[in-house]
């Protein structure tokens, strides 16, 4: 949601930034922020040339960038460029959670307002504001970055590549959302999004087919043609991705997660999860034990990485 006066021209809202990735981006810092009662984003300008990406996990974040007042909701992704003043224009919802990450580009950065996307295989396109379509993929990449950056002896090169992978995934999702305009593609995307939205429920091929007024055979044909997998496998894939997010962002037990995702029993959940990820839920959770949480009282001073 964007607040504006009638005569105000929105300078950022439709802007797309293009980063060259002939070499990885330079990672700076990352964290997960949990808002406390009365919290507003601090008033700040990035004078060192770093960019920040904010991705909302839960709640609402109210932030003004330049003259743009923006309400960020769940799964919203905001790119804040350097040398631009930004601050919280309103107190955020208590308990709101967002990921934040800073990076420096390692090449030319251009921007445009064009609705069509030119082709450059070494360039990622990041919109100023974007609602992430497949949040689970982004969440996993961010957790990998958090884990890498908070190693006892972090390897900067690894963090650089994780940071670059996040931008590549955001760019891919954005470009896909721009180019998917055909009726069939849009309908199929609606089916996939419906499955993602209802992934916590008991869903099957027959129920989905009925929802979209088609036969189960035709639905499975669509998945074979567009995703090279069966409908059932896609359902399990989505549920496994949801399980990964719950394993990393909550303290729910394996049994509680199985119940949350409407599996018939814990044993069946374990079998499906291992088929998709090749490891057990417990092993997956323990693989990403390190992270960095901060709030207004815990906000570190992190040195700028050496460019040499």
In short:
By secondary structure, the protein is an alpha+beta fold. It has helices spanning 135-149, 156-179, 183-197, 205-211, 216-227, 231-249, 254-260, 266-277, 281-287; strands spanning 2-3, 16-20, 26-34, 51-58, 61-65, 68-72, 76-80, 86-87, 97-104, 109-112, 123-127, 129-131, 293-294.
Could you describe the 3D structure shown?
By secondary structure, the chain is an alpha+beta fold. The protein has two domains: 10-179, Regulatory protein AraC (Jelly Rolls); 183-287, Arc Repressor Mutant, subunit A, CATH 1.10.10. The protein has helices at residues 135-149, 156-179, 183-197, 205-211, 216-227, 231-249, 254-260, 266-277, 281-287; strands at residues 2-3, 16-20, 26-34, 51-58, 61-65, 68-72, 76-80, 86-87, 97-104, 109-112, 123-127, 129-131, 293-294. The strands form three sheets. A six-stranded mixed β-sheet has the order 12-7-4-9-3-13, with helices on one face. Helix 1 runs parallel beside helix 6 and helix 6 (231-249) crosses helix 8. The chain is globular. The N and C termini lie far apart (42 Å). The model is unreliable at 1-9 (pLDDT under 50).
